């Protein structure tokens, strides 16, 4: 990969400015689609490219777009920029440094499904990125690339930014829609799926910021070009966020399936003081921890799954041998307890009781029974929660117990008291 | 009254959505800019503009962490102490912030200048320890740079 497809700010200085973006193929795909492609041709090329959703679920984007009914109006495009998974900061970089590519991808999606309004939902903490993005949107309007009768084609599109206000659950697509409608950010039952009844009960496409940033290069260069990167089932490039105990934490854009976790850690400068890796969280707090024996797993959706975890949003949090696993699991459960929306009992109560057990264990009051109780709490949540948040919350418990149970046992057999407990 | 004072902002916000109710969060931000926090009066004003029951607006304020129900300091300093940041010293960093400001996380300094809070992941784990001051990022903080920042803000 000689040039970045997404993190183009690393190759082209000031690409956040419209003039620079346009001088580097910016909005060429948008012009091409509007003047020479039918909406269904845009869907077809994204489908052929095999682009999978980059927000975590990995659902094929083109397929999602094809579910939008043709005869119901209005339709909406909603961009998920709630980026709140612990360890994830890729959309942040895209919004700060390459906002026009996000806007162009949003516009292409809107044209493909024939929506005339798009909302970009950003987490409330992205106030500064929202200013950069709004400036870019204003530039695009002024250049006639958004608004009424775009490029004289008769197609209209408005793009609005909507700021959240601090709630991880709003990254869940139906909770995001509720939040955008001015309701509590709580998930809804599916079906109906958003493609049929989404925002204001109208057909709605929801895609992640990074997913849509992939669309302009796909439309411009074609599906075959895109498929030179990645694997058959995981085509394209992906941004990997690396954080934790490494020397150079940051975003690394790589073709899917070409490199291993070990190589990713090397790219991130290796571990601090060259300590051995103890475990890797491939999707922040939300996917099972992988032990060091899995470091040669390839970085794609299917390989991560085969290794017993998930690629998710590809936010790799690296833990070295100085990290106490029980401490780390407690941090993650604290996150889920704080972010549980309270709608369903297993998640609301489960995260609460799991947190109590972790507090008991790290305050030196725990017993072997409490360790078993943790597993019991997690197992009574698994498969019973209203949305994935509660399912995710079982991961830190069950996966750390599976791979690092002796560390828990050490906490209850040789009690220590730590700060923060 | 918000209705008069921020009339053009409110009008622009309402125009973005086919449903008035969608404007509840943007309007609460406007109210918070004006009043510093979302008290019952602010909630009633927003509810009236949107034709909602104040209770419904209050539930929105309570659900989201970025709407304040109590007065805050002039500068709200929110330090992330979630796992990725904690792996890079965030817990020790928070302890330093508490010592420098002389308050615990969650408290406001007696002069009303600073509120210190800890927050969950704010999507900047590559530049930990990280904080936001009135929702503006401060990246790659050190105890020294934090002290300088506080001294500067004290003016």
Written overview of the protein:
The complex is a heterodimer of chains A (421) and B (155). By secondary structure, chain A is α/β, with parallel strands linked by helices. Chain A folds into 3 domains: 8-226, NADH-ubiquinone oxidoreductase 51kDa subunit (Rossmann fold); 237-320, Ubiquitin-like (UB roll), CATH 3.10.20; 325-413, de novo design (two linked rop proteins) (Up-down Bundle), CATH 1.20.1440. Helices cover 43% and strands 13% of the residues of chain A. In chain A, the strands form 2 sheets. Chain A has a 5-stranded mixed beta sheet, sandwiched between helices. In chain A, strands 3-2-1-4 form a 4-stranded parallel beta sheet, with helices on both faces. The longest helix of chain A has 26 residues, at 388-413. The relative contact order of chain A is 0.12. The model of chain A has no long low-confidence stretch (mean pLDDT 96). Chain B is an alpha+beta fold and 155 residues long. Chain B folds into 2 domains: 2-63, NADH-quinone oxidoreductase subunit E (Arc Repressor Mutant, subunit A), CATH 1.10.10; 75-154, 3-Layer(aba) Sandwich (Glutaredoxin), CATH 3.40.30. Chain B contains 8 helices and 4 strands. A 4-stranded mixed beta sheet of chain B has the order 2-1-3-4, covered by helices on one side. In chain B, β3 (131-133) and β4 (136-138) form a beta hairpin. In chain B, α4 crosses α5 (54-63) and α7 runs parallel beside α8 (143-154). The longest helix of chain B is centred in the N-terminal third of the chain and has 12 residues, at 24-35. Chain B is elongated. The model of chain B has no long low-confidence stretch (mean pLDDT 97). Classes of the chains: A alpha/beta (421), B alpha+beta (155). Chains A and B meet through β3, β5, β7, β9 and α14 of A and α3, α5 and α6 of B.
């Amino acid at each position: 990969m000689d040039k970045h497809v997404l993190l183009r700010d690393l190759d082209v200085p000031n690409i956040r400015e419209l003039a620079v973006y346009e001088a580097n193929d910016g909005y060429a795909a948008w012009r091409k689609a509007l003047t020479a492609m039918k909406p269904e041709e845009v869907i077809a090329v994204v489908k052929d490219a095999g682009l999978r959703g980059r927000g975590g679920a990995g659902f094929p984007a083109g397929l999602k777009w094809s579910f939008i009914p043709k005869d119901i109006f209005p339709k909406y495009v909603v961009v998920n920029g709630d980026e709140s998974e612990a360890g994830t900061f890729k959309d942040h970089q895209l919004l700060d440094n390459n906002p026009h590519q996000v806007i162009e991808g949003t516009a292409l999606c809107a044209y493909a499904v024939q929506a005339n309004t798009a909302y970009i939902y950003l987490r409330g903490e992205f106030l500064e990125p929202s200013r950069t993005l709004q400036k870019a949107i204003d530039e695009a309007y002024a250049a006639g690339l958004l608004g009424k009768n775009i490029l004289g084609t008769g197609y209209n599109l408005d793009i609005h930014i909507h700021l959240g206000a601090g709630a991880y659950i709003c990254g869940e697509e139906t909770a995001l829609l509720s939040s955008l409608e001015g309701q509590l950010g709580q998930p809804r039952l599916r079906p109906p799926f958003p493609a049929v009844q989404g925002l204001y009960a109208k057909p709605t496409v929801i895609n992640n910021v990074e997913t849509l940033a992939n669309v302009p290069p796909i439309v411009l260069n074609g599906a075959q070009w895109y498929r030179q990167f990645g694997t058959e089932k995981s085509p394209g490039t992906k941004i990997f966020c690396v954080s934790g105990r490494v020397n150079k934490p940051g975003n690394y854009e790589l073709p899917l399936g070409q490199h291993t976790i070990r190589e990713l850690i090397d790219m991130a400068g290796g571990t601090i003081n060259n300590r051995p890796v103890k475990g890797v969280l491939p999707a922040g707090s939300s996917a099972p921890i992988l032990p060091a024996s899995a470091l040669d797993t390839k970085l794609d959706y299917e390989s991560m799954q085969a290794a017993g975890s998930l690629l998710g949003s590809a936010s790799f949090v690296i833990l070295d041998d100085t990290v106490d696993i029980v401490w780390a699991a407690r941090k993650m459960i604290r996150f889920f307890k704080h972010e549980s929306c309270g709608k369903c009992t297993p998640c609301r109560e489960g995260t609460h009781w799991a947190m109590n057990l972790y507090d008991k264990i790290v305050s030196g009051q725990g017993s072997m029974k409490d360790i078993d109780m943790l597993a019991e709490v997690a197992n009574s949540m698994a498969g019973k929660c209203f949305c994935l948040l509660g399912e995710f919350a079982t991961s830190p418990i069950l996966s750390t117990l599976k791979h690092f149970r002796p560390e828990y046992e050490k906490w209850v057999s040789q009690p220590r008291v730590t700060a923060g407990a | 009254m918000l209705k008069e004072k921020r009339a053009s902002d409110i009008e622009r916000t309402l125009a973005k959505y086919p449903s008035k109710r969608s404007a509840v969060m943007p309007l609460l931000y406007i109210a918070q800019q004006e009043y510093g926090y979302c008290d019952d009066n602010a909630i009633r004003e927003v509810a009236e503009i949107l034709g909602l029951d104040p209770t419904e607006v209050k539930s929105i304020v309570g659900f989201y962490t970025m709407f304040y129900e109590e007065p805050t300091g002039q500068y709200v300093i929110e330090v992330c102490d979630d796992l990725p940041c904690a792996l890079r010293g965030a817990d020790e960093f928070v302890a330093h912030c508490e010592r420098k400001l002389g308050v615990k996380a969650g408290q406001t300094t007696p002069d009303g200048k600073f509120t210190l809070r800890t927050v969950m992941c704010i999507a900047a784990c590559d530049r930990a320890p990280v904080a936001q001051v009135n929702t503006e990022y401060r990246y790659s903080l050190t105890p020294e740079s934090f002290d300088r920042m506080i001294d500067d803000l004290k003016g």
